[in-house]
Write a structure and sequence with these properties.
The chain is an alpha+beta fold. It contains five helices and twelve strands. It folds into two domains: 93 residues, no CATH class; 88 residues, no CATH class. Strands 2-11-4-5 form a four-stranded antiparallel sheet. Helix 1 packs across helix 3 and helix 2 packs across helix 3.
């Protein structure tokens, strides 16, 4: 179950940590809410950009034979991976840059092995290479655009106290406006410590903590070879 925190709770935490509980005219709830939404957006980016997929979602569909481009969801913010299913096997597509577009046979049709994101389109378009030759199923993983908190009952998922980062980040903005350098330094130290803890603990939801990564490519090659030769151990 998610560990949710309401906007009301976040506002109270910000006022307490920044010691502005009675400054409701200088620091209104409306202004603090805007800052909270900015910091919430920054935190989601921070978590996902460091390889922790807590705030990602996915969408699935099927390719259309002869069609190269596929629009992403309307709430799309940033892409993190594309999978295609071929003969019951899920394969991850590689991403190539727009600078490499002419190094790929754009008129060739087959099972896609790579893609590039035409980010300037609205919504952005995933361009497959080669162009799909049949209706392969595909799934893409992305960070959705943030839905701002607007009422006191709106919630965020703070996991295990991660909302502290958001609170401290907002406090720094408040203290900057108040020119309180001494308190700013103290809160910055708290935020830095909390961010280090989050980075350290975010990948450890499994306490098995494998000592090394599996050689999945070799395992997949071996599986294909055995399937092709009819070998059964």
């Amino acid at each position: 179950m998610a560990r949710t925190r309401t906007l009301t709770e976040l506002l109270a935490d910000v006022r307490y940590q920044a010691d502005i509980e009675n400054q409701t005219l200088r620091h209104t709830d409306a202004n603090l809410t805007r800052l909270i939404n900015q910091s919430w957006a920054a935190f989601r980016e921070l978590i996902c950009e460091n390889g922790f997929p807590y705030y990602l979602t996915s969408a699935s569909s099927n390719f259309v034979a002869g069609t190269a481009g596929y629009a992403v969801a309307s709430d799309f913010a940033r892409l993190y991976g594309v999978d295609v299913t071929v003969g019951g096997e899920v394969r991850s597509l590689a991403e190539h840059s727009i600078m490499e577009r002419n190094e790929v046979l754009t008129t060739q049709q087959g099972c896609p092995v790579s893609f590039w994101l035409r980010a300037t389109a609205s919504p952005p378009i995933m361009v497959m290479q080669p162009i799909p030759d049949q209706a392969y199923a595909y799934t893409y993983y992305y960070l959705p655009q943030q839905t701002d908190l607007t009422t006191g009952a709106n919630t965020i998922d703070g996991f295990n106290g991660w909302e502290d980062w958001i609170v401290f980040d907002v406090c720094l903005k408040v203290l900057t406006r108040d020119d309180d350098d001494e308190q700013f330094a103290k809160v910055l130290a708290l935020k830095t410590q909390r961010e280090a803890e989050i980075r350290r603990n975010a990948p450890k939801r499994s306490r098995l903590n494998a000592a090394c990564r599996l050689d999945t490519r070799r395992m997949r090659r071996e599986s294909r070879r055995k399937s092709a030769t009819g070998y059964i151990p």
